[in-house]
Amino acid sequence: MKVIDDFIRQYNKEFDFYQKLSQIVASKIEDQLFNLGIKAIVTHRAKRPDRLKDKLIKRNEDKKYQTIGEIYDDIVDLAGIRVSLYFPSEREIIDEVINELFKVIKTKTFPNEAYTPKYEKRFSGYWATHYRVKLKEETSTKRYFDTLAEIQVASVLMHAWSEVEHDLVYKPFSGNLSKEELAILDEINGLVLSGEIALERLQSAMAERTKKQNEIKDKYELTNFLLSNINKDYLNKVKLGDTYLLNNYLNTIKKLDVNEFYNYIKKVNVDLPESVTDQLLNMLLVEFYDNDKINLKSYFKNLHISEKKASGFESFVRCWVILEKAVREILKDEQIRPNKYLIPDFKILKEKQILTLKEADELRQLRQIRNYLLHGIETPAEEYLKDSYQRLKSLTTKVVDKMPTNTIKEKLKKELDDL
């Protein structure tokens, strides 16, 4: 018992540390779920010292702790985070998010064959995925790098049932439950599993309603529509991406109806590294570049970027679109038929000696700036953006000058002059 008392004394001093770690992890997940348009309740906590001591006393009957270090190795959820999903089918998307945001040390999926329940059940019990994770390296969170946190992902219904079962069966503060009480818990589990099936049907029904109403009203409807209309096998190969950004663009052009949008979804290419939403955003940029529906400045302002910066961002992205159009024309001359909506391969510019090796490398760096601007990831300093734009315009002019078709060359030169 001394080793447990010593651990609890130490843990009391570290409680705020674990509380802060759980808050950091939860905040990262919440931010990403907001961008993805996933509805969920994210909660966090550090284990309460009084509850933890009771747990350690029970575990010590089998573990026979000898050192404080053994207890730290055994208790992996001192910092705990719960993600309670409205729709159980979105667990796969959350898996993608967690693996992207954190260093995943271990994943456990329930139910599993190794698990033996404490009482005989008719239904399958707890359905969830648990992740033991560490933070990736960031200056602001350096002191938390080497500490584990546990993330539990399940439906809202399943989390509620598991909380009741865990407290009544595995932490019986009011005595052991009777056979009748255990049977009622099992019955409730059956209702929860039925409820999850109903939630999945509700999700499909919402997607059908969106299709019929011919309008996507917010990023949550957009996410649901994408998940319902993209081949499930595709999402094992390509990431969904941020629906927040795509929804912002759809709101900017305003006139794209659901049936038109569905035609773009069918063009998503799973063999490309870009996410589903990145590909769709690029398709729409290309499609509406010459159309009065587009207003890139409004798109950037809706990302809470100042009007002055929005103008700079707009000029940079418009210049990039002209560059892509020029490269596609050059590829056509080489009897290569590039997909209209995909970012073309710029290697042809070096191979045809239109750009030097150094200039081709510059273009790769400028492409990263283009991606950052569109995604609102980074807002470069004004002078840096101005210099980058001028360099992009210079390279684009050089590419346009080498175009084989004079009529298209003059058209693109005029577009460059109008920027």
Gist of the model:
The protein is of the alpha+beta class. It has 16 helices and five strands. It is elongated.
The coarse silhouette is elongated
| Total DSSP helices | 16
Distance between the termini: 75 Å
Strand % is 5-15%
Give start-end ranges of low-pLDDT stretches: none
Q: What is the ordering of alpha helices and beta strands?
A: HEHHEHEEEHHHHHHHHHHHH
Estimated helix fraction: 55-70%
Strand order of the largest sheet: 1-2-5-4-3
State the assembly state of the protein chains: single chain
Rg for CA atoms: 27 Å
Quickly give the structural class: alpha+beta
What is the makeup of the main sheet?
Answer: 5 strands, mixed
Mean pLDDT: 85
The strand count comes to 5
Give the helices and strands, then pairings.
Elements (H helix, E strand, L loop, with lengths): L1 H35 L3 E7 L2 H15 L4 H7 L4 E7 L5 H11 E9 L17 E8 L13 E7 H15 L8 H35 L5 H11 L13 H11 L4 H8 L10 H13 L7 H6 L5 H27 L13 H5 L5 H19 L6 H20 L4 H13 L1
Parallel strand pairs: 2-5
Antiparallel strand pairs: 1-2, 3-4, 4-5
Helix pairs in contact: 1-2, 1-4, 5-6, 6-7, 7-8, 8-10, 12-14, 12-15, 12-16, 15-16
